[in-house]
Known about the structure:
By secondary structure, the protein is mainly α. It has helices at residues 12-15, 25-54, 59-95, 99-135, 141-156, 158-173, 178-200, 210-234, 250-281, 287-324, 328-355, 357-364, 370-383, 387-402, 407-429, 436-459, 462-469, 472-476, 483-498; strands at 504-507, 511-515, 519-525, 530-536. The chain contains 19 helices and four strands. Strands 1-2-3-4 form a four-stranded antiparallel beta sheet. A hairpin with a 3-residue loop joins strand 1 (504-507) and strand 2 (511-515).
Amino acid sequence: MTAASVGQTLPASVTDRAWYQRKDLLFQVWQLALPVIFTNLLQSLVDVIDVFMVGRLGPIAIAAAGMSTAIRFLVLVMLLSVAAGAMTLIAQAKGARDPQQMSFVTRQSISSGFLISLVLTAGGYLLARPLLMLANSGGDPQAVELGTAYLQILFLGTPFMVLNMVFNRLMQGAGDTLTPLWMTGSINLLNVLFNYVFMFGAGPIPAFGIAGAAMGTVTARAIGVVVAFLIVYSGKNVVKLLPGSYWPDWQMFKDIFTIGVPSGIQGVFRNGSRLLVLGILTSTEVGTYGAAAMAIGFQVEALVFMPGLALNVAATTLVGQALGQWQPQEARVRGNMAIGLGLLIMVVLAAPVIALAPWIIELFDPSAHPVVMKTGVTYLHINTVFLPLSAVAMVANGAMRGAGDSFPGMVSTAFTRGVISVSLAWLLAFPLGMGSLGVWIALVIGSVLDAMYMGWRWRGSAWLTVALHKTTLYRTHLRHLSTQLQQQYLREVRTPLMAVPSTREMVDAEGVVYTLPEHQVSVRFDDQSYHLVERKI
């Protein structure tokens, strides 16, 4: 059997590429994205709930909780690293219709998340007080005492935070975005209940004050982890734990972190650059009032970004699943659809922000301070106009992460936000005398360049090469072939065979077996070529 004859054995609906022409793709994208929007909102509420309830204990307690939350952001880098890598790999395993690989990815994601959480727990517990003292330089020492107890308890609960995030991303990557939504909602309700009980006391339980808020959060997340394990062991969710071991597989750990670490570093650059820009802004003519205007602007943007972030997740899932079946054209169509939808939604959401800018600023600042009002309105009028372009960078980043290629997003954010925006903000604000207006323009230029670079990388094909190189097929067999033969095999054998909805691909040291409804295609490799044998089932 020759590679060219493979297509002759396939149904017409596959060979004429009708598989690529589904009319429900837009619905698929939105069906995945909508629950993620609400999940993200609920996740962001966890810290808000803590700070709100701690506020009943007084301003010093609020300061302690606020500083602790800022410090805990450092931990999120590694948490995102595990979760992002897990999401990509399980999406690809789901696309490949390989339940064993899905179970393997799930176990290794849990193992890697748990091991790294132990390191973060120990380091965070020991460094909690020194970090709080650094953050509270010159402040009330009571804030450090209260914050230390609060932060150390939260760090002790790091394994639960990690596993909550990993389970959410695993399910979302496999295409189930509803279960993470109701799990996150349930955790939030439990968080409120346990916060109240441990902070103010109930029955035999004494009042622990601010430490009780941390105890409530950890308890709620611990219950969430137990429920998640019950779900994946039940066999009723798309993510299932089949018989296997949690013993670390270092190649899988490497794959998880190769995908995930750049995503985490990207977050550091994004937020770190904002802090640097904030320092420049407060040195301009608007002073501290500029910080207030910028804070309002970022809060408004965070709400507008929610659909974009959800489409980022949807793009990772859909592109990852398409590449698990090795359907590169379908992967590109799915990514393009998600990017286009993100651009459209951001335009719709940005328009009222621009029109209602003065009212929005006054909503956040009832005093309507003239500097905050003028600076904030200028920010919204300039930055929000270009905000839809951020959807291109954001969703393209998610699409390429579905291929396992998260490096471009890190490079783009580091260069456009960390270098260009910060440098231009200083240059325009001071040497060129533009003040706060120069800072806003610098942020826009950084966003536009980020979108241009990420759009260009998505239009290329480097992400397809990254996805291929992470496959067992490539590592076991294809890497021994010339590039021309690799592409021929993918184009004439793997792509058309895997386009059949029920095809299974089994790779071992001897070769590859594709099992279709009525026949099997076996492939044997040598150093210079490959050979196909077909047999009826």
